[in-house]
Structure formats: structure tokens, C-alpha cells
Amino acid sequence: MEQYSPTFDPAEVPPSPRAMLQYEQNRRKETDVRDAVQKKTFTKWVNKHLLKCRSAGRRIVDLFEDLRDGHNLISLLEVLAHESLPREKGRMKFHKIQNVQIALEFLRRKGIKLVNIRSDEIVDGNPKLSLGLIWTIILHYQGDVVTFMGHYTQSLPGTRKLGSRTNIVSVWWCLFCLQWILIWGRMWTF
Question: Residue ranges of the Calponin-homology (CH) domain (predicted)?
């Protein structure tokens, strides 16, 4: 028989391998759902701005694939910044890396801090870094916007205001989706 010990804590008992496996499967499923929602949300945001692009036919179908050559990324930045950027016209991987590098250097010149986002990772279609890059662009170019759930208004530092009511609704919707994902994820952690 086990003797009662005042220092015994049931939380210190390691979980069973089956419980660990189930936890890991649930965590992966939640991560996949969150990534899918972010991908869909960011794709809509990018397409909304690419409609304003001078070169017809710019449209994102698969965010991770369509950012790989750098042309859509450069077009997005041209629309948002109202500036023209150079681009490589070739189709080899070197040209794609160069185009993404042009976009990343432009963002750095604008004072946007890019942490661990490299051009070769975007060209390879890394989902996490592609989502992170688009989120960073959204935060910078959406500006003085956030009225969240009717409670809070904040001007984000270092941002440029685009100024239309549609943009305010767009960022509100993105933040609402992300908040919902975070709350939903917290509910399933226990």
C-alpha cells in the first residue's frame, strides 16, 4: 500500500503515452485549422489589394505557391506603397529568389522589421514564414485602425494609414478571426 505523503502532487504523475499521443494529435489538428483560417484570410486580403494592380491578372489562388516567384509580392507592395519596384523576368529559382529579395529589402528600407524571414524560404513555399510575412505587411500598411469588438481603438506605431472604411473592416475581420482562433485554442489545452 502506498503511504500518504503530504508532498504528493497528482500533477507530477507523468501522463500515459496514449494521453500524450492524443494531446499531440489534437494540437496538430488545431494548428492545421488555425493555419487554414489564416491562409484563407490573408489570401482574401492580398487579392483585395491586387485588384488595384496595373498589371491585369494578378490573383492569389494558393498563397504559399503564388508568392514563390516574387511577382505577386512585388505587385502587392507596389499597390500598398504607391511606388514602382524592379523585378527579374526569368523563371529560374535564382530569379524567384531575387524577386523575393527585392521585396524584402524594400520592406526593410521602409523600416519594417523582418525576423527570420529569408527569400529562399518564401521561394520554397514555407507556410509559417509566408503567413508571417503577409501578417507583417498587413500590420504595417493597415495603419490607424483597430476597433476590436467595439471596446478598443489603437493606433499601431510605425504604420501607414490607407484610410478607407473597407480597410478598417478588413483588419477588424482579420483580428477577429485570429482572436477567435486563440480563444478556441485555449479552450482545448486542458
Answer: 36-142
Strands (E), the chain: 146-148, 152-154
The CATH code belonging to domain 29-187 is 1.10.418.10
Distance CA 90, CA 75 (A): 16
Q: Whole-angstrom distance between the N-terminal and C-terminal Cα of the chain?
A: 31
* Residue found by looking up cell 504523475 in the block: 13
Using the Cα atoms of residue 94, residue 95, residue 98 and residue 104 in order, give the sign of their dihedral. negative
Q: Rounded to 5 degrees, what are φ and ψ at 148?
A: -110, 120
Write out pLDDT tens, residues 101-158. 999 999 999 999 998 999 999 999 999 999 999 999 998 988 544 444 444 344 444 4
Q: Supply 174's cell numbers.
A: 482579420
| pLDDT for position 175 | 72
What residue ranges do the domains of the chain occupy?
Answer: 29-187
16 vs 125: CA distance, rounded Å: 36
Query: Angle at CA 48, nearest 5°, toward 171 and 123?
Result: 95
67 with 122: CB under 8 angstroms? yes
